[in-house]
Amino acid sequence: MTQADTEMNWKGCGDLRKIAEESMERPLLNGVLGLCGESGECSDLLKKHLFQGHELNRERMVKELGDVAWCLAQAAHGLDCETGRYGRLAGED
User: Fold this and answer.
1) What DSSP designation does 25 have?
2) How far apart are CA 33 and CA 68, in angstroms?
3) Separation of alpha carbons 21 and 24, rounded Å
4) Helix, strand, coil share (%) of the chain residues, nearest 5
5) d(CA 73, CA 2)
6) How many other CB atoms are found less than 10 A from the CB of residue 14?
7) CB atoms < 10 A from the CB of 70, how many?
């Protein structure tokens, strides 16, 4: 996979779902567990910046946020969620 394939593109979330559909047999499990790990990576980068004096590594943060988006697409696919619908689920009960 090239850098261009993994770059963050919020308008391309449908493309992320397509990748998710093609790559995993257990997308809900992989997606939810992946969200935990990848969001932890983002949190750790920010923690090191805010509390330990490290410079914020923006390039790495963008990469990790791309991984978060990919995991979200995996989880949405595992729930047979329509492309783009998972962006609106937070306001629904």
Assistant:
1) S
2) 11
3) 7
4) 75, 0, 25
5) 19
6) 11
7) 21
**Dist CA 75 CA 88 (whole Å):** 14
For each of the chain's 93 residues, which pLDDT tens digit applies? 444 444 444 455 667 666 666 666 688 899 999 999 999 999 999 999 999 999 999 999 999 999 999 999 888 888 888 656 655 655 565
Domain boundaries, the chain: 30-81
Q: Tell me the C-alpha distance between 77 and 46, whole Å.
A: 29
CB atoms within 10 A of CB 89: 11
Answer yes or no: are the C-beta atoms of 27 and 75 closer than 8 Å: yes
Q: Which amino acid is at 28?
A: L
Would you state the structure tokens that stand for residue 88, as one six-digit string?
Answer: 């609106």
